[in-house]
Structure formats: C-alpha cells, structure tokens
Amino acid sequence: MTYENVMDEVQEIFRDVTDNPSIVLKPETTSEDVEEWDSLTHIQLVVGIEKHFKISFTAEEIGSYANVGEMCEGIVKKLNG
After folding, report:
1. What are the E-state strand segments in 1-81?
2. Separation of alpha carbons 12 and 22, rounded Å
3. Is-contact 45 71, C-beta < 8 A?
4. What is the CATH number of the domain that holds 39?
5. Which of 2, 21, 57, 77 is the most buried (most CB within 10 A)?
6. Contact between residue 76 and residue 8 where contact means Cβ atoms under 8 Å apart
7. What is the pTM of this model?
8. Which tens digits make up the pLDDT trace of 13-51?
9. What is the DSSP letter of 67?
C-alpha cells in the first residue's frame, strides 16, 4: 500500500472518529491542528487505525510519531513489512 493510500484512509478514520467530515490531513498535522483531537480521541484514533489496517502499535511507536505523516510512514512500513 502506498503512503498516499494510507493517508487517504487515515483521513477517513479521523473524520469518522471526530465526527468532522471537513478534516483535511497533511503530513505535518498534529493534535494542535485538529480541535477535536484530545487524549480520548487519540486513543480512539489509534484503535480505529489498528483495526482498519489490522496492525498493532507499540506504546513507543505511538509516542515517537511527531505528526500524521510520520504515523502514516509507520503504517506503510508495517503493511509492506
């Protein structure tokens, strides 16, 4: 799966979890950029992404991602192994 495909699918997960269809993610997007992205939403996003892509993140991985782009790169690596 390509980075662009992952970014598109992650954007849909963000829209669903936050109930905000107008969210447009960019690689540099962080929780500071999305009003609805609080600590509870963060957990829901991680769980939603893990279920959607059938992957698991370690706590270290989750803490290491500085933005959506880095998270999507991590997803691509897991999927393409």
Report:
1. none
2. 10
3. no
4. 1.10.1200.10
5. 57
6. no
7. 0.94
8. 999 999 999 999 999 999 999 999 999 999 999 999 999
9. S
Q: Give CA separation, 55 vs 6, 14, 23, in Å.
A: 13, 17, 24
- Match 């929780």 to its residue by tokens: 31
Would the pLDDT of 59 be above 90? Answer: yes
Tell me the pLDDT of the chain averaged across its residues. Answer: 96
| Domain range enclosing 33 | 3-80
pLDDT of residue 7: 98
CA 75/CA 81 separation, integer angstroms: 10
Query: Closest Cα to residue 71, out of 14, 1, 10?
Result: 10
Residue 65 in this model has a pLDDT that exceeds 90? yes
Residue type, 33: D
Kindly state the tokens that stand for 51: 């279920």
